[in-house]
Design brief:
This protein folds into two domains: 7-61, DNA polymerase, domain 1, CATH 1.10.150.530; 68-347, Aldolase class I (TIM Barrel, Alpha-Beta Barrel). Helix content is 36%, strand content 18%. The chain contains eleven helices and twelve strands. A ten-stranded mixed β-sheet has the order 1-2-3-4-7-8-9-10-11-12. A two-stranded antiparallel ribbon has the order 5-6. The relative contact order is 0.12.
Length: 348
């Protein structure tokens, strides 16, 4: 028997074309789409507004391939990390990050199984990239973690960040298709202003995202402010150096009007000197944006360590004196496998 495709791989137009081929009205396709993306059902049996015969017809032609929770870790700070099993038994991660005092509940989603960029401070970088996630698999992470937020905190998700496993710019189409489903009124209905796509820096795709009229926010994983140091920790800098990224992020800001966020992991004794601060200031003067300094979650077999408070504080003060907006973000989930890719690696 021929394997049935996941119905969630079809665009709305493709779904309408299928119903037209069956000589059925287009409104039936819209009903199916709403059941899938607005109500989040995982079976045709649940589509109670459809005739039984149509549900059987759909089941004969298509299937659902939802993700499943494989393991859960909850930190004493409230962070919840999920290891998720895909239909082909690959594993990815999603994280709920609650900030109750600010009523901010963020899901960090993955977009690839593994990653091809091999940044040497990152657990995911030690995993071979197997494939891109499908739009439905990204959507499922938001749906599942949204249910967790309601169950544990009585609050819906407020933000979605593409900062989990994988490089979003190298999974561009499924990422953008999933964002369409997350933001659509016939989907989860979240505001695009509440979604941030983070990239290690693929200059041409940053420009494409601007040209495609995206309304989401852009975060650049900078982590070092000169090419020598950045290439040492991020091989992608050899082909997408800081000059190219400055040009691309400026283009993005000019086209979209959205400011950039710079992500900067604090690696003790490596990227927090006065020279590093001044190099960062020079970048931000060219393309203004907020800087998030992130405490490092050490991983096995990586040569980097968590920076101490004084080192981070001195660096932040130097940058702040220039007038740049800089925030030091505390690491979350230190008592669990918090670093990106750690929990999935254990499952593998």
């Amino acid at each position: 028997m021929k394997e049935r495709p996941d119905i969630r791989l079809l665009s709305d137009n493709e779904l309408i074309a299928q119903f037209k081929n069956w000589e059925l009205p287009a409104f039936r396709a819209k009903q199916v789409s709403e059941w899938i993306w607005k109500h989040g059902v995982n079976s045709f049996h649940e589509m109670s507004s459809l005739p039984i015969e149509l549900r059987k017809q759909l089941e004969e032609k298509f299937c659902f391939r939802p993700i499943r929770i494989d393991a859960t870790q909850q930190s004493k700070d409230g962070t919840i990390k999920l290891r998720l099993r895909l239909y082909d038994d690959h594993l990815v991660e999603a994280v709920l990050i609650p900030v109750k005092k600010e009523s901010r509940f963020t899901v960090c989603v993955s977009c690839q199984v593994g990653c091809s960029l091999a940044c040497n401070f990152c657990a995911t970088g030690k995993m071979q990239r197997e494939r891109n996630l499908e739009p439905g698999e990204i959507y499922d992470q938001v749906k599942l973690v949204g249910a967790l937020a309601m169950a544990h905190y009585g609050h819906p998700l407020t933000n979605v960040v593409f900062m989990g496993m994988g490089e979003p710019m190298l999974a561009y189409k499924p990422v953008m298709d999933s964002i369409h489903r997350i933001t659509s009124p016939n989907g989860l209905g979240m505001s695009s202003k509440r979604i941030t796509v983070s990239t290690a820096g693929v200059a041409k795709m940053i420009k494409k995202m601007a040209d495609d009229g995206t309304k989401v926010n852009l975060a650049l994983s900078l982590h070092a402010a000169d090419d020598v140091k950045r290439s040492e920790i991020m091989a992608i800098n050899d082909t997408n150096n800081l000059e190219a990224l400055i040009e691309a992020t400026k283009y993005f800001m000019d086209i979209t009007g959205n400011r950039i966020t710079y992500e900067y992991i604090a690696l003790g004794g490596f990227n927090l000197s006065a020279e590093d601060a001044y190099n960062l200031i020079k970048i931000v003067r060219k393309v203004p944006g907020r800087i998030n300094v992130i405490e490092y979650n050490p991983i096995d077999d990586a040569p980097y360590k968590r920076a101490d408070f004084k080192e981070v504080d001195h660096f932040a003060k130097l940058v702040r004196q220039s007038g740049a907006m800089i925030t030091v973000r505390k690491s979350r989930g230190l008592d669990i496998d918090a670093a990106c890719g750690q929990l999935a690696n254990k499952g593998e």
